Amino acid sequence: MTTKRTSFIRVVKCLPVLSVGFALVAASIASAQDQRISSQPIRFIVMFAAGGGSDVVARYVADRMSTLQGQTVVVENRPGAAGVIAARQVLSSDPNGLTVLVASNPLLINQIIRPETKFEMLKELTPVASVAPQSVVLVTPPEFPANSLKELIDVAKKRDLNYGTTGAGSLSHLAVAYLLSSQPDVKMQHIPYAGSAPALTAVMANQVELGSSTVPPTIGLIAGGKLKPIAIASANRSVMLPNVPTYAEAGFPALPVSVWTGFFVPKAAPKDVVDRLSKAILTASSGPEAQAKFKELGFEPSTSGAEKFNDELNAEFKIWADVVKNLDPATFK
User: Fold this and answer.
1) pLDDT (tens digit, 9 = 90+) per residue, 320-333?
2) What is the CATH code for 136-257?
3) Is the pLDDT of residue 199 over 50?
Protein backbone atom coordinates (compact mmCIF):
# COMPACT_ATOMS: atom_id res chain seq x y z
CA MET A 1 0.00 0.00 0.00
CA THR A 2 2.82 2.36 0.96
CA THR A 3 4.59 1.65 -2.33
CA LYS A 4 1.45 2.46 -4.34
CA ARG A 5 0.91 5.68 -2.35
CA THR A 6 4.53 6.73 -2.89
CA SER A 7 4.27 6.11 -6.64
CA PHE A 8 1.06 8.13 -6.77
CA ILE A 9 2.69 11.04 -4.96
CA ARG A 10 5.64 10.97 -7.39
CA VAL A 11 3.29 11.08 -10.37
CA VAL A 12 1.38 13.99 -8.86
CA LYS A 13 4.63 15.87 -8.25
CA CYS A 14 5.68 15.31 -11.87
CA LEU A 15 2.43 16.62 -13.31
CA PRO A 16 3.45 20.32 -13.22
CA VAL A 17 6.72 19.49 -14.99
CA LEU A 18 4.92 17.41 -17.61
CA SER A 19 2.36 20.16 -18.06
CA VAL A 20 5.11 22.70 -18.69
CA GLY A 21 6.76 20.32 -21.14
CA PHE A 22 3.54 19.74 -23.05
CA ALA A 23 2.89 23.48 -23.05
CA LEU A 24 6.32 24.18 -24.52
CA VAL A 25 5.81 21.58 -27.24
CA ALA A 26 2.38 22.98 -28.03
CA ALA A 27 3.78 26.51 -28.12
CA SER A 28 6.55 25.38 -30.44
CA ILE A 29 4.05 23.77 -32.81
CA ALA A 30 1.82 26.83 -32.67
CA SER A 31 4.80 29.10 -33.36
CA ALA A 32 5.78 27.06 -36.41
CA GLN A 33 2.19 27.17 -37.64
CA ASP A 34 2.09 30.95 -37.09
CA GLN A 35 5.09 31.31 -39.41
CA ARG A 36 3.40 29.37 -42.19
CA ILE A 37 2.11 31.43 -45.07
CA SER A 38 -0.80 29.05 -45.50
CA SER A 39 -2.09 25.73 -44.27
CA GLN A 40 -2.22 24.80 -47.96
CA PRO A 41 0.96 23.72 -49.79
CA ILE A 42 2.87 26.33 -51.77
CA ARG A 43 3.87 25.31 -55.29
CA PHE A 44 7.16 26.41 -56.83
CA ILE A 45 6.88 26.19 -60.64
CA VAL A 46 10.47 26.14 -61.96
CA MET A 47 11.09 27.24 -65.57
CA PHE A 48 14.02 24.83 -65.94
CA ALA A 49 14.41 21.06 -65.95
CA ALA A 50 15.35 19.28 -62.73
CA GLY A 51 19.02 19.54 -61.81
CA GLY A 52 19.71 23.02 -63.17
CA GLY A 53 20.98 25.88 -61.03
CA SER A 54 17.60 27.52 -60.38
CA ASP A 55 16.02 24.12 -59.70
CA VAL A 56 18.68 23.32 -57.10
CA VAL A 57 18.15 26.70 -55.44
CA ALA A 58 14.35 26.31 -55.49
CA ARG A 59 14.52 22.90 -53.84
CA TYR A 60 16.93 24.11 -51.19
CA VAL A 61 14.71 27.10 -50.36
CA ALA A 62 11.66 24.81 -50.27
CA ASP A 63 13.36 22.45 -47.82
CA ARG A 64 14.47 25.34 -45.61
CA MET A 65 10.97 26.84 -45.57
CA SER A 66 9.64 23.47 -44.45
CA THR A 67 12.25 23.19 -41.70
CA LEU A 68 12.15 26.78 -40.44
CA GLN A 69 8.51 27.69 -40.91
CA GLY A 70 6.68 24.37 -41.15
CA GLN A 71 5.45 25.37 -44.60
CA THR A 72 4.84 22.60 -47.13
CA VAL A 73 6.38 23.54 -50.49
CA VAL A 74 6.07 21.38 -53.61
CA VAL A 75 8.56 21.92 -56.47
CA GLU A 76 7.43 21.27 -60.05
CA ASN A 77 9.47 21.66 -63.25
CA ARG A 78 7.93 23.17 -66.38
CA PRO A 79 10.80 23.83 -68.82
CA GLY A 80 10.42 25.25 -72.30
CA ALA A 81 9.93 28.44 -74.34
CA ALA A 82 12.47 30.39 -72.26
CA GLY A 83 10.23 30.16 -69.21
CA VAL A 84 6.98 31.24 -70.84
CA ILE A 85 5.39 27.80 -70.32
CA ALA A 86 6.03 27.95 -66.58
CA ALA A 87 4.94 31.58 -66.40
CA ARG A 88 1.67 30.86 -68.18
CA GLN A 89 0.92 28.05 -65.75
CA VAL A 90 1.41 30.38 -62.79
CA LEU A 91 -0.67 33.13 -64.40
CA SER A 92 -3.53 30.69 -65.06
CA SER A 93 -3.59 29.53 -61.44
CA ASP A 94 -5.56 31.01 -58.55
CA PRO A 95 -3.79 34.36 -57.87
CA ASN A 96 -3.69 33.70 -54.13
CA GLY A 97 0.11 33.85 -53.98
CA LEU A 98 0.48 30.13 -53.31
CA THR A 99 1.59 29.22 -56.84
CA VAL A 100 5.03 30.76 -57.34
CA LEU A 101 7.11 31.03 -60.49
CA VAL A 102 10.83 30.33 -60.07
CA ALA A 103 12.55 31.97 -63.02
CA SER A 104 15.79 33.50 -64.25
CA ASN A 105 17.07 36.14 -66.69
CA PRO A 106 16.03 34.36 -69.92
CA LEU A 107 12.37 35.05 -69.13
CA LEU A 108 13.09 38.79 -68.91
CA ILE A 109 15.31 38.74 -72.00
CA ASN A 110 12.82 36.69 -74.01
CA GLN A 111 10.20 39.45 -74.06
CA ILE A 112 12.80 41.74 -75.65
CA ILE A 113 14.12 39.40 -78.33
CA ARG A 114 10.83 37.60 -79.02
CA PRO A 115 8.01 40.14 -78.62
CA GLU A 116 5.75 37.86 -80.66
CA THR A 117 5.27 35.72 -77.54
CA LYS A 118 3.08 38.56 -76.20
CA PHE A 119 4.31 38.02 -72.67
CA GLU A 120 5.39 41.03 -70.62
CA MET A 121 7.02 39.80 -67.47
CA LEU A 122 7.26 43.12 -65.64
CA LYS A 123 3.57 43.88 -66.23
CA GLU A 124 2.12 40.45 -65.52
CA LEU A 125 4.18 39.25 -62.54
CA THR A 126 5.08 40.64 -59.13
CA PRO A 127 8.69 40.07 -57.99
CA VAL A 128 8.83 38.46 -54.55
CA ALA A 129 12.56 37.90 -53.97
CA SER A 130 15.76 36.81 -55.66
CA VAL A 131 18.47 34.66 -54.11
CA ALA A 132 21.85 33.09 -54.85
CA PRO A 133 22.92 35.00 -57.98
CA GLN A 134 25.63 33.66 -60.25
CA SER A 135 28.31 35.76 -61.92
CA VAL A 136 29.25 35.38 -65.58
CA VAL A 137 32.93 34.87 -66.37
CA LEU A 138 34.82 35.19 -69.66
CA VAL A 139 37.42 32.46 -70.17
CA THR A 140 40.00 31.51 -72.80
CA PRO A 141 42.27 28.53 -73.43
CA PRO A 142 45.35 28.68 -71.16
CA GLU A 143 47.68 29.47 -74.08
CA PHE A 144 45.60 32.35 -75.48
CA PRO A 145 47.86 35.45 -75.83
CA ALA A 146 45.93 37.65 -73.39
CA ASN A 147 45.74 37.74 -69.62
CA SER A 148 43.35 40.65 -69.20
CA LEU A 149 40.26 42.06 -70.86
CA LYS A 150 42.26 44.93 -72.37
CA GLU A 151 44.76 42.50 -73.87
CA LEU A 152 41.92 40.36 -75.24
CA ILE A 153 40.33 43.40 -76.94
CA ASP A 154 43.75 44.36 -78.35
CA VAL A 155 44.05 40.90 -79.90
CA ALA A 156 40.50 41.15 -81.26
CA LYS A 157 41.34 44.45 -82.95
CA LYS A 158 44.09 42.73 -84.90
CA ARG A 159 42.20 39.61 -85.94
CA ASP A 160 38.67 38.28 -85.85
CA LEU A 161 37.82 36.06 -82.89
CA ASN A 162 34.89 33.82 -82.14
CA TYR A 163 33.22 33.22 -78.81
CA GLY A 164 31.07 30.44 -77.44
CA THR A 165 28.12 30.91 -75.09
CA THR A 166 25.34 28.87 -73.52
CA GLY A 167 22.91 29.87 -76.27
CA ALA A 168 21.55 32.73 -78.36
CA GLY A 169 19.85 35.28 -76.14
CA SER A 170 21.33 33.82 -72.96
CA LEU A 171 22.93 36.11 -70.40
CA SER A 172 26.33 34.69 -71.33
CA HIS A 173 25.67 35.78 -74.94
CA LEU A 174 24.40 39.26 -74.11
CA ALA A 175 27.22 39.85 -71.62
CA VAL A 176 29.70 39.64 -74.51
CA ALA A 177 27.39 41.61 -76.82
CA TYR A 178 27.27 44.32 -74.14
CA LEU A 179 31.07 44.46 -74.05
CA LEU A 180 31.31 44.63 -77.84
CA SER A 181 28.73 47.44 -77.98
CA SER A 182 31.42 49.73 -76.55
CA GLN A 183 34.04 48.47 -79.03
CA PRO A 184 32.93 49.44 -82.57
CA ASP A 185 36.30 48.39 -84.04
CA VAL A 186 35.99 44.84 -82.72
CA LYS A 187 34.08 42.09 -84.49
CA MET A 188 33.56 38.67 -82.96
CA GLN A 189 31.60 35.72 -84.31
CA HIS A 190 29.07 34.29 -81.87
CA ILE A 191 28.90 30.48 -81.65
CA PRO A 192 25.93 29.38 -79.51
CA TYR A 193 26.00 26.03 -77.71
CA ALA A 194 23.35 24.07 -75.84
CA GLY A 195 24.61 24.87 -72.36
CA SER A 196 27.81 25.52 -70.43
CA ALA A 197 29.36 22.06 -70.81
CA PRO A 198 29.64 22.05 -74.64
CA ALA A 199 30.60 25.74 -74.72
CA LEU A 200 33.46 25.25 -72.25
CA THR A 201 34.54 22.04 -73.99
CA ALA A 202 34.82 24.04 -77.23
CA VAL A 203 37.05 26.60 -75.51
CA MET A 204 39.34 23.90 -74.12
CA ALA A 205 39.54 22.28 -77.57
CA ASN A 206 40.45 25.66 -79.15
CA GLN A 207 37.35 25.54 -81.32
CA VAL A 208 36.51 29.01 -79.99
CA GLU A 209 38.95 31.51 -78.51
CA LEU A 210 36.63 32.94 -75.88
CA GLY A 211 33.92 31.42 -73.74
CA SER A 212 31.21 33.01 -71.62
CA SER A 213 29.52 31.06 -68.84
CA THR A 214 28.20 31.29 -65.32
CA VAL A 215 30.95 30.75 -62.76
CA PRO A 216 30.01 27.37 -61.16
CA PRO A 217 30.82 25.12 -64.18
CA THR A 218 34.19 26.83 -64.63
CA ILE A 219 35.58 26.54 -61.10
CA GLY A 220 37.16 23.09 -61.41
CA LEU A 221 38.40 23.74 -64.96
CA ILE A 222 40.08 26.99 -63.93
CA ALA A 223 41.62 25.37 -60.84
CA GLY A 224 42.89 22.53 -63.03
CA GLY A 225 44.55 24.91 -65.47
CA LYS A 226 42.25 23.98 -68.36
CA LEU A 227 40.71 27.45 -68.65
CA LYS A 228 42.03 30.95 -68.04
CA PRO A 229 39.65 33.53 -66.52
CA ILE A 230 39.75 36.98 -68.11
CA ALA A 231 36.96 39.05 -66.55
CA ILE A 232 33.75 38.91 -64.53
CA ALA A 233 30.76 40.21 -66.49
CA SER A 234 28.79 41.25 -63.41
CA ALA A 235 28.61 44.18 -61.01
CA ASN A 236 30.95 42.70 -58.41
CA ARG A 237 33.77 40.19 -58.26
CA SER A 238 32.71 36.62 -57.69
CA VAL A 239 33.35 35.18 -54.24
CA MET A 240 34.36 32.01 -56.09
CA LEU A 241 36.92 33.84 -58.28
CA PRO A 242 37.99 36.75 -56.07
CA ASN A 243 41.10 37.57 -58.10
CA VAL A 244 39.29 38.05 -61.41
CA PRO A 245 38.37 41.72 -62.11
CA THR A 246 35.01 42.94 -63.34
CA TYR A 247 34.42 44.75 -66.63
CA ALA A 248 34.51 48.08 -64.78
CA GLU A 249 37.72 47.27 -62.93
CA ALA A 250 39.31 46.34 -66.27
CA GLY A 251 38.45 49.77 -67.67
CA PHE A 252 35.27 48.91 -69.60
CA PRO A 253 31.60 49.85 -69.08
CA ALA A 254 30.21 48.26 -65.94
CA LEU A 255 27.60 45.53 -66.32
CA PRO A 256 25.45 45.62 -63.15
CA VAL A 257 23.75 42.29 -63.84
CA SER A 258 24.05 38.74 -62.52
CA VAL A 259 22.24 35.49 -63.25
CA TRP A 260 19.49 35.52 -60.66
CA THR A 261 17.01 32.97 -59.38
CA GLY A 262 13.82 34.91 -58.81
CA PHE A 263 10.44 34.14 -57.26
CA PHE A 264 7.29 35.68 -58.77
CA VAL A 265 3.52 35.62 -58.30
CA PRO A 266 0.67 37.02 -60.43
CA LYS A 267 0.03 40.76 -60.10
CA ALA A 268 -3.33 40.04 -58.47
CA ALA A 269 -1.76 38.18 -55.52
CA PRO A 270 -2.65 39.75 -52.13
CA LYS A 271 0.08 42.07 -50.84
CA ASP A 272 0.08 40.57 -47.35
CA VAL A 273 0.75 37.12 -48.83
CA VAL A 274 3.49 38.53 -51.07
CA ASP A 275 5.13 40.22 -48.06
CA ARG A 276 5.02 37.05 -45.95
CA LEU A 277 6.26 34.93 -48.85
CA SER A 278 9.14 37.33 -49.48
CA LYS A 279 10.12 37.25 -45.81
CA ALA A 280 9.95 33.44 -45.72
CA ILE A 281 12.12 33.04 -48.83
CA LEU A 282 14.70 35.55 -47.60
CA THR A 283 14.81 33.88 -44.17
CA ALA A 284 15.30 30.48 -45.79
CA SER A 285 18.10 31.87 -47.97
CA SER A 286 19.97 33.77 -45.26
CA GLY A 287 22.19 32.87 -42.34
CA PRO A 288 25.48 30.95 -42.14
CA GLU A 289 24.04 27.58 -43.19
CA ALA A 290 22.36 28.89 -46.34
CA GLN A 291 25.35 31.06 -47.29
CA ALA A 292 27.71 28.11 -46.89
CA LYS A 293 25.44 25.97 -49.07
CA PHE A 294 25.25 28.56 -51.83
CA LYS A 295 29.03 29.01 -51.80
CA GLU A 296 29.44 25.24 -52.00
CA LEU A 297 27.27 25.27 -55.12
CA GLY A 298 29.26 28.15 -56.64
CA PHE A 299 26.56 30.78 -56.15
CA GLU A 300 26.94 34.21 -54.59
CA PRO A 301 25.50 34.23 -51.04
CA SER A 302 23.27 37.30 -51.41
CA THR A 303 19.56 38.08 -51.64
CA SER A 304 17.20 40.85 -52.76
CA GLY A 305 13.78 41.59 -51.31
CA ALA A 306 10.73 42.44 -53.40
CA GLU A 307 11.34 46.19 -53.81
CA LYS A 308 15.06 45.91 -54.50
CA PHE A 309 14.54 43.02 -56.91
CA ASN A 310 11.89 45.00 -58.79
CA ASP A 311 14.31 47.91 -59.20
CA GLU A 312 17.04 45.53 -60.40
CA LEU A 313 14.71 43.99 -62.98
CA ASN A 314 13.68 47.34 -64.42
CA ALA A 315 17.31 48.46 -64.68
CA GLU A 316 18.31 45.17 -66.31
CA PHE A 317 15.46 45.40 -68.81
CA LYS A 318 16.74 48.78 -70.02
CA ILE A 319 20.29 47.44 -70.39
CA TRP A 320 19.25 44.47 -72.54
CA ALA A 321 16.77 46.50 -74.58
CA ASP A 322 19.62 48.85 -75.56
CA VAL A 323 21.95 45.95 -76.39
CA VAL A 324 19.41 43.94 -78.38
CA LYS A 325 18.27 46.84 -80.58
CA ASN A 326 21.80 46.97 -82.04
CA LEU A 327 21.94 43.25 -82.81
CA ASP A 328 20.76 41.46 -85.93
CA PRO A 329 17.40 39.79 -85.13
CA ALA A 330 18.69 36.72 -86.97
CA THR A 331 21.11 36.30 -84.05
CA PHE A 332 18.26 34.89 -81.97
CA LYS A 333 16.72 32.54 -84.51
Assistant:
1) 998 888 777 777 76
2) 3.40.190.10
3) yes
